Amino acid sequence: MNATAPTGAARLKGLMFDLDGTLLLSDRSLGNYEILPGAAELLTELARRAFPFVVLTNGSAYPPAEQAAKLRGLGLPVRDEHMLTPSSVAADLMVRAGVQRALVLGSSGVGQALRDAGIETVHVGERGERDVQAVYVGWYPECTMKSIEAACEAIWAGARLYVASDVPFFATKQGRTMGYSYAIVGAIRRVTRAPMILTGKPSLHALRFVARRLGLRRSDVGVVGDDPSVEILMARRGGATCFAVTTGVMAREEWERQTGLRRPHQVLRHLGDLLESVVPEIRSK
What pTM was computed for the model? Predict the structure, then answer.
């Protein structure tokens, strides 16, 4: 897995970037960011070349527009419509399924994409918390047993369980940090045995949403990420091309040990390698 272009890379017509561990590292509170080397330069050049890209994070704490604004403030040229979260995917799936009301287990920004799509959201302790068609679990550091119980009651009453992320940890400046929704959903499913609809990576729902947002087929999309069980697995399952970085949860030697659906098509030495391996037909003259 060297820096040469994988077979078919030159035909790619759009890119999807992971956020944490790929373009930046945050602290564990998600309140402080450090842009990773080459990220701003790469996205700026892609924008200059009019090469389509989106950013899809598994983080759901902030609404997409708010997250995009934060990134632009750091120097990453990510437009509002190019910033995607699991809530973006959840809203799309719920609208398609006819969901009109959802119980949200998450911080204030988790349900904004649902509300923007016309779905009424309620929180634990509010009237009618069981009278919903869906339970949506996202970033929720303040989750209590009362919240888990309310979710179980809604599911027993017929609501379907939607989940932003089923990833146990993600990369931060302090190292691997636990994914809250993973732990919360573990408790809910242990009690209810309910199946879950995963809206974040590595769900194919997420990859399909990315492809539609880019206006491309999945086979025309390149996925760039730091986690073999998240971005790489999603890309492999969905027929996309996957690129791995070494700035997140995996060092290069760890990537070399990956096999099967967790093995990337290419491990990047530097994010800038994408300019030559993916878009050589429009490289700068």
Answer: 0.90
